[in-house]
Amino acid sequence: MRVILLGPPGGGKGTQGELIEKKYGFPKISTGDLLRREVQEKTPLGEMARAKMNQGELVSDDIVIEMIKHRIFQPDYKRGYVLDGFPRNVSQAQRLEKIEKERPEIVIDIHLSEQALIQRLSARRVCSGCGTVFNLIARNPKKEGTCDVCGSELIKREDDAPEVMKERLKVYHEQTEALIDYYSRKKVYFRVDGEGKVETIAKNIYSILDREIARSREMEAAR
Ligand code: AMP
Q1: Residue 199: C-alpha distances to residues 12, 16, 138, 206 (Å)
Q2: What is d(CA 26, CA 38) in angstroms, rounded to the nearest whole number?
Q3: Radius of gyration, alpha carbons of the chain
Q4: Which residue's alpha carbon is nearest to atom 1 within ligand 1?
Q5: What interhelical angle do 90-99 and 178-185 show, nearest 10?
Q6: What's the pLDDT tens digit per position in 143-195?
């Protein structure tokens, strides 16, 4: 099963992706995390991606496709995987389907109002050590400014600055939102309300996944 988490930046895809990984054992692939690692390590790819990321724009399709390709054929990903932040436009979605045709696909759109989103993004903090994501509204650290997991300092992501945030939301509306229609036509699109508690959103996602995983097993058995 390929689970695609769709939704605007800061809408909770990362958090829900981690929970899905834990519950179903599908490893999470976050193109944003992979790119940030490249930037941090100052690799040639990271240097290419940095400017775009800091401006809130998308990096080239070729770069992200290559990163995905590297992973999904490894043994750990055989049962399934969760994509967080990929695809970001219709061209990426089409290229993904060409790379890997077999696996059944399910798309979960974590939906939030624009106002809730801006509030969430302003409250997001990430650990400078291990990358764990916190939120001063929804997922507060036990000790202010300090990561619960590794004790490092919590910082604001550079691209959560208000001007960059605005550009990221614009890119989302102009390029990523078109995927709603794209996946609806393929009848693999499901929307959940992303404004409640993390656990409530997770429960709603699990019930969709449980049902769809069972359905796809039945279809496979009938073949
Ligand atoms: P994220 O952590 O998913 O919000 O991604 C942070 C930034 O990484 C985005 O604003 C883009 O600049 C870049 N990025 C992440 N995923 C993709 C993708 N699938 N295609 C292009 N750029 C991406």
Answers
A1: 12, 9, 11, 10
A2: 23
A3: 17
A4: 32
A5: 40
A6: 999 999 999 999 998 888 888 989 999 999 999 999 999 999 999 999 999 99
Cβ burial of 93 (10 Å; 0-12, 13-18, 19+) is: buried
Supply 42's token pair.
């100052």
Tell me the pTM.
0.91
Non-local CB neighbours of 121 within 8 Å, separated by 6+ positions: 9, 10, 160, 165
What is the rounded distance in angstroms from the CA atom of residue 184 to the CA atom of residue 133? 30
Confidence of residue 223 (pLDDT cuts 50, 70, 90): confident
User: Is 157 one of the catalytic residues?
Assistant: yes
Does the CB atom of residue 95 touch ligand 1 within 6 A? no
Enter the CATH code of domain 1-112+194-214. 3.40.50.300
Q: Read off the tokens for 110.
A: 């974590």
Cβ–Cβ under 8 Å, residues 8 and 113: no
Report which protein residue has its CA nearest ligand 1's atom 19: 86
Report domain extents, the chain: 1-112+194-214, 113-163
Cα 50 to ligand 1 centre (Å): 11
Q: In what order do the strands lie in the sheet with 133-135?
A: 133-135, 124-127, 154-155
Exposed / middle / buried, residue 97 (Cβ in 10 Å: 0-12, 13-18, 19+): middle
Q: How far is CA 142 from CA 8, 114, 139, 151, 172, in A?
A: 27, 28, 9, 10, 32
